[in-house]
Amino acid sequence: MTAETSSRDFRSRLRAFDALKPLLPYAYRYKGRIALALIALGVAAVSTLTLPLAVRGMIDHGFSADDPSAVNLYFGAMVGVVAILAFASGTRYYLVMTLGERIVADLRGDFFRHLTSLDAAFYDKTKTGELTSRLTADTTQLKSVFGSSVSIALRNLFMFAGAIVMMTLTSPKLTGVALAAIPCIVLPLIASGRVMRRRSRHAQDQLATASAYAAENLAAMRTMQACNAQRVAAERFGAAAEGAYAAARDATQTRAIVTSVTIFLAFGSVVAMLWLGAQDVLAGRITTGVLSQFVLYAVLAASSLGELSQVWSEVSAAAGAAGRIGEILSIQPTVAAPSAPLHLPKPVRGGVAFDDVGFSYPAGSGRAALDGLSFAVAPGERIAIVGPSGAGKSTVFQLLERFYDVSRGAITIDGVDLRALDPIELRGAIALAPQDPIVFGMSVADNIAYGREGVSRSAIIEAAKRAQAAQFIEALPQGYDTEIGERGVTLSGGQRQRLAIARAILADAPILLLDEATSALDAENEALVKEALHDVMRGRTTLVIAHRLATVLEATRILVMSEGRIVEQGTHASLVAAGGLYARLARLQFDMGAEAAAAALETA
């Protein structure tokens, strides 16, 4: 290998650490603490480098019979130096470790904040368990870099440089021998960097895979147990964990080999220098104290190089973790606020229009979910959307909340294109009560007020009453302060749905989206909630994905969708009379013929 090739390879390996550069601003925020840590580090290093001088003086002069008290002086001086060293080392340790914790806490906060800004298309193709691994395991890997690793590296660089200077002043001849051995120690260290980064990153990827599998199955524990899949799930996770272990073992093996080789070469050179120094002592060229001083400095230099090898391996592994985090941080959401967003008129009237909308899911099969969809909803109008599974009903809601942007055409609210709006302002004008409501592992009150923290307790209670949820909430052990478990597993489906309806009521938005929000309720509670929803829907634009006939009957207009298009629209009576898709759905889904449906309409 030529010198030019070797230099180019070294530069390419250094560039691998570029992944750490975006994280440097996090450290710069705490430059005052860093300065204090550097001062403490310098004091500790100088104290350490002073000890061999005291040892030399003690050996050469402390045991002299001419002045027996000198030994007390030298030992006293050593105790003082050790005390300064201990205080400076403890101070340095506290400063750098808390600095690492502080930086990682900031990074985790920014990383999670970035995750919340990414759009639905990103989460369609990314496992949340893997993201959790990056948020926890990878950031923990970085903590050692900004905490102990950087401190250890600086301390050992300082110690190495100081020890070399003192070795040179003590014995230039022996120092030349030591310096000749340094390339043999450093080159294996540099050569191992690429392998270490590759194996560390593979280990982190394997751990993320295992974490993602565990998170997915733990979230569906009841389904797992209902299907008696515990053994299979445990075996699969065991295999994934074994893969993570094997990858971590390989990375550790590489680090162990590099550390062993470096330490052998470093301390082997010390032994060689000790042998040469012993020859000089025997020949009378140097004193025993001088040799002792030189050996101590040589040991300090060798141990510093040995620790630097370990730090290099840790930083290599951290560079892999930083690269994984950087990949996510570099992703920009495709759905974002424009540079100069428009605003909805005040007050928002709630007029909704789809104009020749076409859309395909980015992570889907490529088949159009909507194909030339056009319809308009007047402010305050109540629209029901029906159709077979896969017709595109839920996609209408997804696009209206701008979780995705349309492929062609436009969607407007009060004449303003959704793409010209800030998504936060847009979603503030829309309330959603989904068919499968999400309930979080916090108190009932916090669940109702989710996204609207700071609202009064009285407003939360009023929303619960209007959603017919107050009775079961007040029966809970701590009422509105009851913690309801992750995903609300302690509640029934109907109770979770009423909490979601209370959340939508509290939002008080001009546009209301109901994804068959009463489907999990019994007949009695359904009647009560529908009465509440009548009150909520009054004066609001309401779009309802409907499966139950009773919901359809309440709509002023029904849109019938099939294969991403509107194939029929009208009132219940006119659609049943037309005998088309809606009439067939009515017979199949509601077990109701046309005449019975018409009779139900008359009595509704």
UniProtKB/TrEMBL annotation:
Residues 35-317 form the ABC transmembrane type-1 domain. GO terms for molecular function: ABC-type oligopeptide transporter activity; ATP binding; ATP hydrolysis activity. Keywords: ATP-binding, Membrane, Nucleotide-binding, Transmembrane, Transmembrane helix. Belongs to the ABC transporter superfamily. NCBIfam families: MsbA_rel. Part of an ABC transporter complex. Transmembrane domains (TMD) form a pore in the inner membrane and the ATP-binding domain (NBD) is responsible for energy generation. This is ABC transporter. It comes from Methylosinus sporium.
